[in-house]
Specification:
Length: about 200
């Protein structure tokens, strides 16, 4: 078996043809014990003060895969922003609280820069504008054998909307390593015959 890609290099792209299970198997990563307490406090659904969109680690990783995002800080910012924005219950003060915590309380690779905060806020707006289904409540483990194209349709996420959002991010953050590796198109196998 070939060695796994380091987590910082992993980038799933927008391949509609693979299953969620296969994508998870290809994803390197740490287990839940590697997540600091301050992140779990706001982002874990078991926390009494969890913010809207809180989801367990398997669900969070599934959303990374669904959105075609890696694990660099801007990728995390986008995934968390979409998840919170799609929840349907995120209030302005909660969005502000999260940005304060992510920028000033989180440490190491979990801390967001000003640019990451911009990506997060853009992702919240994107989720609201595109009316994505609340992702934090999807039964991700039960959906593991479904193809990603089916899951995107189920969640109300279109590749064209994602690609447009990613182009806006590339324009806003041209030197960002995460933005430079965002998908430019769906995988060729996922494009319907009539579009080729």
């Amino acid at each position: 078996m070939p060695p796994r890609t380091p987590l910082a290099e992993w980038n799933p792209g927008l391949d509609d043809t693979i299953t969620l299970r296969a994508a998870h198997q290809a994803m390197p990563g740490d287990d839940a014990s590697a997540i600091p307490w301050y992140v779990r406090l706001l982002e874990n659904p078991a926390s009494p003060v969890a913010l809207p969109g809180a989801v367990d680690l398997y669900g969070h990783d599934s959303i990374h895969i669904l959105l075609g995002r890696g694990t660099l800080p801007p990728d995390e910012a986008f995934v968390i922003g979409v998840t919170m924005g799609a929840s349907g219950t995120l209030r302005g003060w909660q969005e502000d609280l999260y940005t304060l915590a992510a920028q000033h309380c989180y440490r190491g690779g979990f801390r967001f820069s000003r640019t990451d905060i911009q990506v997060f806020r853009a992702a919240v707006r994107f989720a609201r504008a595109t009316r994505i289904r609340p992702l934090h409540v999807l039964p991700w483990r039960d959906l593991a054998d479904r193809r990603l194209g089916e899951l995107r349709a189920l969640a109300g996420v279109t590749a064209s909307a994602l690609l447009a959002a990613y182009e806006r991010e590339r324009v806003r953050c041209p030197t960002s390593r995460a933005a430079q590796r965002l998908p430019l198109h769906q995988s060729p196998a996922a494009v319907p015959e009539t579009d080729r």
